[in-house]
Specification:
37% of the residues lie in helices and 3% in strands. The chain is mostly helical. Among the domains are: 28 residues, no CATH class; 77 residues, no CATH class. It has a two-stranded antiparallel ribbon with strand order 1-2. The N and C termini lie far apart (91 Å).
Length: 181
């Protein structure tokens, strides 16, 4: 039998809790802070519902079994991107989430590429970050320099404030006023 050392306040709390819950049958608290009981009954209850199965077939969902009612998010995408709902429904029922579809539509609109091609890239395992890098939407291209380097000198062309820019309320020469030379 293994012995575990548990601090006395914790034991007292556990005994009280077990007595309240009715799990500790008649018990006697000894003067040395030990507890003598004829039996301890512990029940493990699983009241938590089963987590949703992420491997469920999306084609079995309500919005895939019928075409009269449009999914609310799909309907918003139709309005925003002027695409027919049947195409969106096909992608959704093929297993793409609405977020993935929205990213494909937005990216396709930015670069003039078919969103279906972008979704296929996702299905092949490429993440959005990699797709966007390949489309030069993020990161630097291999031959590119710093941003705003139109003259190719390796430095941004417009770093800092404009030379002729003087914000209102600031003197031309801070720290020096005309009244105090």
């Amino acid at each position: 039998m293994n012995k575990i050392s548990i601090p006395k306040p914790i034991i007292a709390l556990l005994v009280t809790l077990l007595m309240v819950l009715g799990a500790l049958q008649p018990a006697v608290a000894n003067a040395d802070s030990t507890v003598a009981a004829s039996s301890i009954l512990l029940e493990v209850r699983n009241d938590d519902p089963e987590p949703p199965d992420d491997t469920e077939d999306p084609s079995d969902s309500y919005y895939c079994r019928q075409s009269e009612d449009q999914h609310p998010f799909g309907a918003r995408l139709v309005e925003r991107y002027a695409i027919d709902y049947a195409t969106l429904q096909t992608w959704f029922c093929d297993g793409y989430g609405w977020g993935q579809i929205a990213l494909a539509l937005q990216t396709g609109q930015l670069v003039g590429q078919d969103p279906g091609t972008l979704l296929e890239a996702r299905r092949e395992g490429r993440g959005w970050g990699l797709i966007w890098q390949e489309l030069n939407l993020i990161g630097r291209s291999e031959d590119g320099g710093p941003p705003n380097d139109l003259d190719g000198d390796g430095k941004p062309d417009h770093a800092g404030p404009k030379k002729d820019h003087n914000p209102p309320g600031r003197p031309d020469s801070p720290g020096k006023s005309e009244s105090h030379p």
